[in-house]
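Good morning C.,

I know you're traveling, so I'll keep this short. The sequence:
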Amino acid sequence: MARIERVYRHYQELEEFHAGMWKIIRGEERKAYVLASADLMRDSDAFKVAMRRAIKKWPLSAEVALTSIDSNRIAWLGHAGCCIATGSPEEATRGGWHTLNLAEQDEANRVAGEVLAEWEEAYFATNGVDLFSYMERSHA
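The tokens, ready to paste straight into the viewer:
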């Protein structure tokens, strides 16, 4: 039975680190990023494009984050999409998330789930992992 193995890398190898996903910002700059990330998450089509772009441009970061089955992979995709499309760091994106109403949050999660499923299918096909076996193991 094939299994997915978690991938680890040093943070300095990760594209997200160099793109500023973890930088700390304050004041008006933070406020602008909160609004920009919220606007992006409200636009399902643009949000999906941004998350796909993050996966493509940040393959090492995506592999580390998305092979971590016990983490919130949907959140990572949203943070990465917002960072790559708007420059919003993770903390400001979380602020933007909290400005969304429940229906908007549900839709953003749905779209991120689609992108995650696409990544998993491609990753499993490329790395010889059997998706059914993986799903059994991760949802047992």
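Safe travels,
E.
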